[in-house]
Design goal:
Elements: E1 9-11, E2 23-26, E3 32-37, E4 46-49, H1 50-61
Antiparallel strand pairs: 1-2, 2-3, 3-4
Amino acid sequence: METTPEYDWYKSSYSGGSGDNCLEVATGIPATIPVRDSKNPAGSALHFHAEAWSVFVDGIRRGGV
């Protein structure tokens, strides 16, 4: 059985203090960005290609939803 590697997870500094509806992101993994629900850290993570994640984040910064 393959084990899930441990990552260093972080939430955005823009996340509220209540911890609701937050995503956690791990960095330092070549070519992929793992993303998980902060309310369920033991759950599955989605892995995005680094380029796709960058496009998504850029869209959010520009006011997209």
